[in-house]
Design a protein that fits this description.
With 823 residues, this protein is mainly β. Strand 13 (202-214) and strand 14 form a beta hairpin.
C-alpha cells in the first residue's frame, strides 16, 4: 500500500453505518484504476458510492456510473472540467474555455447557444452538475470548480431524474468534497509547475488542513492558487467592412470610404492565460452518536484572458481579435447539511445558497460579416428613403456615404443566485425492503446585462441608451456611449418536487426498484431588450425595444409546468461477483420563454417564433452488467436506447425570422449505444484498464417550424460515434520508495458541429497520449507528467458564435512536475 493511501486511511473517521453518508472508501474511473494491497496480493480496489443517495458498493449498485477518486485525479493531473471531460468516454463538451461550456452525456447533444446570450435565452442544460448536495447547473456556463480536496467525482450517465430532478435528463455529474475528520490533525501542501510547448508556463499551489477542534468538532480547509499559461496568439490583422462578405447587410457598394482598422494594440503571444483562486472551509460537529451538522463555504474566482478557440484561416493556435477578451467568474456557496437517525429512519436535511457573478468582454467585430443591420450601426446615412423612414437628424446626413470604425464588442454581466433545500428520509424497513423519499425546492434567478458596443455609434449621432422606462429593470442607469443594443433581463426558475424510490427483493437474488418524481416548475422572464436609435440625438434614447411584460405575446404571467417521471429497475445478483440489471427511466428539462415570441417573422414564408418552448423528454431502456473475477478482473457495461422527444434547438436567423435568437422544440431523436469498461490487475505490479463508449445517434422526426435543421437520419452534433481510453500502469517499490508509472491513450472518432444545416461542419477525430510517473518517500510525493505527448491538435468543438468559425482545442504538449508534502 502506498504512503499516500496509508495516510488517507489513517486519517479516516468512521461513523456508525447509518451515518456514513458521504464518508466513503473511494472509487476509480473505469480507465484509470488504483489497486489495494491485501496481504501479499494486489487486487482491485473496492468502490463505494452514493449514486442512489445511500452508501453502496458500486459493484452491487444497479446503476451505470464512473467514479474518480482523489488519487486518480492526482495521478492523471485532472484539475478542472476540461481535463475531466477528456477522461470520461461518455462525456462530450461544446465549450470555449473555463466556465463557458455545455456538457453532454451519451450523445444527447445539440449545439450550444452563444455564450453572449446564455443568460437571456439559453436553454437549461440537460446534464446536472452537483457540488455535494446542491445543483450548479446554469445555461451555457458550466460552473467550473477547481478539483482541489475532492473525495471523488461521480459521473452517472442516462436519465437520473427521479433522485436528481430537472436537467438530469442525460445524466448527472457529482463533485463530492472531502469532509472534516474528528480524530487527527493532518494536511498537505502541494506546489507544481508546467511548461507548454510554444506557450506560457503554468504553476499551482494548494494547501489542505484538517484540524480537530474538539473530540466532536473538526474544521477542514483547502486553499488554492493556480495559474495556467496561455497557448493561443492574437496576431496582427486588419479588418474593414466588406459588403461582398455580408451581402445580406444594407451597406451597399457605393460608400465613398470604408475605414480600415488593425489590432496592433492587442497583439499578444499566449494571450489566453487563466487562473483559479479559491478556498473552501467546512466544519463538522457531532451532536451525539446519532446526529451531525456540517457547514461549509466555498469561494472561487476564475480569471481568463483571450479566447480558447483558434481560427485555422489565421494559423495554428492563432486568432485576430480587435476588442479585448476577458472573463471574471466569481462564485460563493454556503451549505448546511444535518444528518441523523430516529428509530432507524435516516434523516438528511441539506440546504445551500449560491451566488455567482460573471463579467465577460468578447470581441464581436465578426458580426460585421453576418449582421443584417450593420450599416445602421456603422455607416453614415445618404439614402433619402432611409432618412425619411427613420427621421434621421440632419447633422448626421452626408452627401457621400462613409462606413466608419467597424470594431464591435460585447460586455456581458450575469448575476446568479440559487437557494436549494432537500429533506429526505430513508430506512431499511426489512432485510428485503428499502425506501427513500424526500422533498426538494430550488429557487434560481439570473440577472443579465448583455451590452453590445459599436464604436461608430456616437460619431453617427446615436444618443445614450437606457432601458425601457416601463420595464422591470436590472440596471436603470444610462449605458455608456456606444452601447447601442443591450438586454436587461430577469430570468427565474422555481421548482418544487417530491420523490421516492423503493427497493424490494421479491425473490432470492432478484430485486425490483421503483422510483417516481412529481414536479411543479414556474419559469419567468421579465425586463427588456433595447435598441439604440440615432433619431434622438442630444437626448437619452429610451422606450425603443421590447418590454417582456408586453412585447408580442408576452405578459406578466409566468410559464407553469408540472408533471411526473418514473423509473423501473430490475436486478439479479447472480452471485457475489455478478450483477445484471434492466432499467426503464425517464428524464426531462424545463421549457422557457422566447424573447421574440409573437413577433411576425421577417420572411412571411417562415412561421412566427412561439412565445414559449416546452420541456423536452427522454425515455431510456438499458441493460447493464457488473462482473468481477477473483478481485483481479472487473468487466462492467451497459447497452441502451434513448428516445428523445421535442428537442430544444436554438437558432439565430435575422434574415428570415427574428433579430433575436430563439428556441424551438425542433425534432425527435434516437440514440443507441454501448458503454463498457475493463479493469485487470495482471499481477502485483501491472494493471490494465480500458473504457469505450459507442453511440449511434440520428434524428427521427423534424418538427421545426422556423429552424432550418439537417434532415431525418442525420447524426446529432458534438458526439463522436466512438470514444475510448486505455491505461497501462506499473506499481513497484525500491529501497523503501514506492513508485508508479502509467501511460494513458485517449481516442475519439469524428463528429459534427451543429444541427443547423448551414452551420454544420465535420469535426475530425483525435488521439491523445499522456504519461505520468510518481515517487513516494516518507511523507513526500513527487509526480511528473507529459500530457499530449504527440502535440495533437484535437478538434473538440467548431463554433461560429462570434461569427468567425473557430476551433476549440486541447492544450499543446505540456510537461509538469508536482511536489506534495503531507503532515
Amino acid at each position: 500500500m502506498s504512503v499516500k493511501q496509508k495516510l488517507h486511511d489513517k486519517h479516516r473517521f468512521v461513523l456508525k453505518p447509518s451515518m456514513k453518508a458521504l464518508v466513503l472508501s473511494l472509487g476509480a474511473l473505469p480507465s484509470l484504476l488504483l489497486a489495494e494491497q491485501t496481504g501479499d496480493e494486489r487486487v482491485l480496489e473496492v468502490i463505494e458510492v452514493t449514486s442512489m443517495k445511500r452508501v453502496q458498493n458500486s459493484q452491487i449498485t444497479p446503476v451505470t456510473l464512473s467514479a474518480l477518486n482523489q488519487d486518480v485525479l492526482s495521478s492523471g493531473n485532472i484539475t478542472n472540467f476540461d481535463d475531466l471531460s477528456l477522461y470520461v468516454p461518455s462525456i462530450t463538451v461544446g465549450g470555449r474555455g473555463p466556465g463557458q461550456a455545455d456538457v453532454f452525456i451519451r450523445g444527447m447533444a445539440i449545439q450550444p447557444i452563444a455564450i453572449m446570450l446564455s443568460g437571456a435565452q439559453g436553454t437549461v442544460p440537460n446534464v446536472a452538475t452537483y457540488l455535494d448536495e446542491q445543483p450548479l447547473t446554469a445555461p451555457g456556463r458550466n460552473l467550473d470548480i477547481y478539483l482541489s480536496d475532492i473525495e471523488r467525482v461521480e459521473v452517472l450517465p442516462g436519465p437520473q431524474g427521479t433522485l436528481f430532478g430537472a436537467s438530469s435528463q442525460a445524466g448527472t455529474i457529482r463533485y463530492i468534497t472531502n469532509k472534516p475528520e474528528l480524530d487527527e490533525f493532518y494536511g498537505h501542501i502541494e506546489a507544481g509547475f508546467g511548461a507548454t510547448k510554444s506557450g506560457a508556463p503554468s504553476d499551482n499551489l494548494e494547501f489542505v488542513i484538517n484540524v480537530p477542534v474538539h473530540d466532536k468538532i473538526a474544521v477542514r480547509g483547502n486553499f488554492y492558487n493556480v495559474n495556467r499559461g496561455g497557448y493561443i496568439d492574437n496576431v496582427y490583422g486588419e479588418f474593414t467592412l466588406d459588403p461582398s462578405v455580408n451581402p445580406n447587410s444594407n451597406v451597399g457598394i457605393d460608400a465613398a470610404r470604408y475605414e480600415l482598422i488593425n489590432n496592433q494594440a492587442l497583439v499578444e503571444k499566449d494571450f489566453n492565460a487563466s487562473s483559479y483562486r479559491g478556498f473552501r472551509v467546512s466544519t463538522l460537529a457531532m451532536i451525539d452518536e446519532y446526529w451531525t451538522i456540517q457547514a461549509s463555504h466555498l469561494a472561487q474566482e476564475i480569471q481568463a484572458d483571450g479566447v480558447f478557440d483558434f481560427d485555422p484561416d489565421v494559423g495554428d493556435l492563432m486568432v485576430n481579435r480587435f476588442y479585448p477578451d476577458s472573463l471574471t467568474d466569481e462564485v460563493n456557496q454556503t451549505a448546511l447539511t444535518i444528518e441523523g437517525e430516529v428509530d432507524g429512519f435516516e434523516i438528511t436535511l441539506a440546504s445551500a445558497y449560491l451566488e455567482r457573478d460573471v463579467e465577460q468582454l468578447i470581441d464581436y467585430t465578426g458580426y460585421n460579416n453576418s449582421g443584417a443591420f450593420i450599416a445602421y450601426y456603422t455607416c453614415s446615412y445618404d439614402n433619402p428613403d432611409y432618412i425619411a423612414n427613420y427621421n434621421i437628424e440632419p447633422s448626421v446626413i452626408t452627401t457621400e456615404r462613409e462606413c466608419l470604425d467597424p470594431t464591435k464588442g460585447f460586455d456581458g454581466i450575469q448575476k446568479h443566485s440559487r437557494v436549494t433545500h432537500e429533506f429526505r428520509v430513508q430506512k431499511q424497513l426489512t432485510e428485503k425492503l428499502h425506501f427513500i423519499t424526500g422533498v426538494f425546492s430550488d429557487d434560481f434567478e439570473i440577472e443579465t446585462q448583455d451590452q453590445y458596443e459599436y464604436l461608430s455609434a456616437t460619431e453617427l449621432g446615436f444618443a445614450p441608451n437606457a432601458p425601457i422606462s416601463t420595464a422591470l429593470q436590472v440596471n436603470s442607469a444610462v449605458r455608456r456611449p456606444n452601447i447601442t443594443f443591450f438586454n436587461d433581463i430577469f430570468r427565474s426558475e422555481k421548482q418544487r418536487a417530491w420523490f421516492a424510490e423503493f427497493s424490494y427483493e421479491f425473490l432470492p437474488k432478484w430485486t425490483i426498484n421503483v422510483g417516481a418524481r412529481k414536479y411543479d416548475i414556474e419559469v419567468d422572464l421579465a425586463g427588456s431588450t433595447n435598441f439604440a436609435d440615432g433619431i434622438f440625438q442630444g437626448s437619452v434614447n429610451t422606450d425603443r425595444g421590447r418590454d417582456y411584460d408586453v412585447s408580442g405575446d408576452h405578459s406578466t404571467e409566468p410559464l407553469e409546468q408540472s408533471g411526473s417521471i418514473l423509473k423501473l429497475n430490475l436486478s439479479h445478483q447472480f452471485d457475489s461477483d455478478k450483477l445484471f440489471y434492466f432499467t426503464v427511466s425517464e428524464g426531462f428539462r424545463p421549457g422557457g420563454f422566447n424573447r421574440g415570441g409573437g413577433i411576425e417573422s421577417v420572411n412571411p414564408e417562415f412561421a412566427n417564433v412561439g412565445l414559449t418552448y416546452d420541456t423536452d423528454d427522454v425515455v431510456n431502456l438499458e441493460f447493464g452488467w457488473k462482473t468481477s473475477f477473483d478481485r483481479r478482473v472487473r468487466f462492467n457495461g451497459s447497452v441502451y436506447q434513448i428516445d428523445w422527444q421535442d428537442m430544444q434547438v436554438s437558432r439565430f436567423d435575422p434574415q428570415n425570422v427574428s433579430i433575436l435568437t430563439f428556441i424551438e422544440n425542433a425534432a425527435d431523436a434516437r440514440i443507441q449505444g454501448v458503454e463498457s469498461n475493463l479493469s485487470w490487475q495482471v499481477n502485483n505490479h501491472l494493471s490494465i484498464a480500458a473504457a469505450v463508449s459507442l453511440n449511434d445517434t440520428e434524428l427521427t422526426k423534424i418538427k421545426a417550424q422556423a429552424i432550418e435543421i439537417v434532415p431525418v437520419g442525420s447524426a446529432l452534433p458534438v458526439t463522436p460515434q466512438r470514444q475510448g481510453n486505455l491505461q497501462l500502469r506499473w506499481d513497484d517499490s525500491y529501497q523503501g520508495f514506492d513508485w508508479w508509472g502509467q501511460v494513458v491513450a485517449l481516442y475519439a472518432s469524428s463528429s459534427w458541429s451543429s444541427l443547423v444545416q448551414n452551420q454544420r461542419q465535420k469535426q475530425p477525430g483525435y488521439q491523445i497520449f499522456n504519461i505520468q510517473f510518481g515517487l513516494e518517500f516518507d511523507t513526500w510525493l513527487l509526480t511528473l507528467g507529459v500530457e499530449n505527448i504527440a502535440d495533437e491538435r484535437a478538434t473538440l468543438f467548431i463554433n461560429d458564435q462570434d461569427d468567425v468559425p473557430r476551433i476549440t482545442t486541447n492544450r499543446p504538449r505540456t510537461a509538469s512536475v508536482n511536489l506534495t508534502y503531507r503532515f
